[in-house]
Amino acid sequence: MTRQSGGGNDRKRADHECLYNSLNLAFTHDDLTYCEGLALVHNVPGWMRHSWCAAPNGTVVDVTWREPGAEYFGAPIDARAAARAVRAQGRTWSWILQINSGA
Hints:
By secondary structure, the protein is α+β, with helices and mostly antiparallel strands. The protein has one domain (3-96). It has three helices and five strands, in the order E-H-E-E-E-E-H-H. It has helices at residues 18-28, 79-89, 95-101, and strands at residues 3-5, 33-40, 47-54, 60-62, 71-76. A five-stranded mixed β-sheet has the order 1-4-3-2-5, covered by helices on one side. A hairpin with a 5-residue loop joins strand 3 (47-54) and strand 4. The longest helix is centred in the first third of the chain and has 11 residues, at 18-28. The model is unreliable at 5-9 (pLDDT under 50).
């Protein structure tokens, strides 16, 4: 995927809140798809759990990190289903984390 920091005119959002930031961005921009997966950060070893949005052309739109990640590997997640899970849990909730933990 091509990488892009920020959502066009969208500003960088809160650190350590990628799930909320990306889900909110997907709801405010109909053309973006919410995604969860793993991302590599420049100069940081290992993959990190992360979420972002994807534009129709495959560009990653990441409003959490100041600089875009080096690589992204993940899957689109239905934003409405993710929002239902957040409401049910009463907190930010990650599909990837749940799969990883076997929950």
